[in-house]
Design brief:
The protein is an alpha/beta fold.
Length: 196
């Protein structure tokens, strides 16, 4: 029987206080597994900058995935213009794509005229509630990055998500495109909150 022993870290609670530790754990596991890319979710740019600082000079590529324009307010992008400028100067891709685990389906489920849930939202809710909100975010951002061509689908990535803001979940994922969702594999959970 063959097995691998690796560390898994658990936070007492979700939230942004875990961001710097998540960046450190992501760097450690990327080095350990010779993974070339870290995909990180960032709404305002703060988490993206924390990961940029941690990964700078490591040779590991950072890919940032943000909310779409209009996610919170019509016509507005929540990502900081200053953070976007810094990342662009460092040639770090900032990917903005429609949330693949909700997108248009959320319009139907929120509508008083149509109502009801969808299979896509059921997948998202299962990931959120059974494991961690950050896992759902990490999976979704990996799909978005793959669909936008920012990461290859034949190489593992470190994927990072959080609960509301900051980072609190780190995992190793073999990516897939959204149209091949069931080819995506969460291969390791590196860090996550125990209480949600």
């Amino acid at each position: 029987m063959s097995f691998v022993e690796r560390s898994c870290y658990y936070f007492d609670a979700p939230g942004p206080a875990n961001t710097v530790d998540c960046a450190r754990f992501a760097l450690e596991r990327a080095r350990e597994l010779s993974i070339e890319r870290v995909v990180v979710a960032s709404t305002s740019g703060d988490t993206a900058l924390a990961f940029y600082r941690m990964l700078r000079g490591s040779g590991i590529k950072l890919v940032v995935v943000t909310h779409v324009v209009g996610f919170s307010r019509p016509g507005e992008w929540e990502f900081s213009a200053e953070a976007a400028k810094t990342l662009k100067q460092e040639k770090i891709p900032v990917v903005t794509g429609t949330h693949v685990l909700s997108g248009m389906e959320r319009a139907f489920s929120r509508s008083s005229k149509v109502g009801g849930g969808s299979r896509t939202e059921a997948v998202a809710e299962a990931l959120r509630r059974v494991v961690a909100v950050g896992l759902k975010v990490a999976v979704e951002c990996t799909l978005i990055a793959a669909d936008q061509g920012a990461i290859p689908v034949d190489q593992e990535v470190i994927a990072v998500g959080g609960t509301a803001s900051g980072a609190d979940t780190v995992c190793v994922i073999r990516p897939a495109h959204t149209s091949s969702f069931f080819d995506l594999q969460v291969r390791e959970i590196v860090a996550m909150p125990r209480n949600r």
